[in-house]
Amino acid sequence: MIGDSCQELVNHTLAQTAPPIWKRTDGQQPMSRKTVAALVFCALAAAPLAEALASSDRPLPSHELRQLFPGTFRAQVKGYEVRFVASRNGRLKGYYGSFSDEGRWSLRGNRLCIMLKDWLDGKTTCSPVRRTRGWYLARGIRFRRM
Question: CA nearest 33: which of 52, 58, 16?
Fold first, then answer.
């Protein structure tokens, strides 16, 4: 199952001796860049299952997505906070601690599409966005406006 292989990948990367560069928001051990990359990969790989389990709400229609974007957002991936700024011109910047990445965002019908140069290896991913308990869910990542 995807969850088992992702857990193995995360355990393997946690065992690496790379210097810790990521700071947890809950005071636990910092993480290496490789571990964060493994967590993002796992979140994206498990997205269809996570979306189905996380919410029975309907996907946001395109007119609601257009009201939501552009903007500044706080996102959570496996307990780690990332701040994203989606500009009107389609530019997307992500900030995590002292690290950042940039890419593009767009809306295709009722789906949000994002591309990040490093964190997503330059690949574009698209998914519907759902609203649940004050958060928006897309591809296993939850986010809200700041």
Answer: 16
The tens digit of pLDDT for each residue in 42-57 reads 666 555 545 444 444 6
What token pair was written down for 122? 């330059």
Better pLDDT: 119 or 56:
119
In 3D space, the residue among 29, 11, 31 whose CA is nearest the CA of residue 21 turns out to be 31
Place of tokens 């088992």: 4
pLDDT at residue 11 tops 90? no
Q: Which domain holds residue 15?
A: 2-52
18-27, 68-77, 132-141 — which is least confidently predicted?
18-27
Q: Are residues 121 and 69 in the same domain?
A: yes
127 Cβ contact list (under 8 Å, min separation 6): 47, 51, 111, 112, 138, 139
Q: How far apart are CA 118 and CA 140, in angstroms?
A: 18
38 shares a domain with 64: no
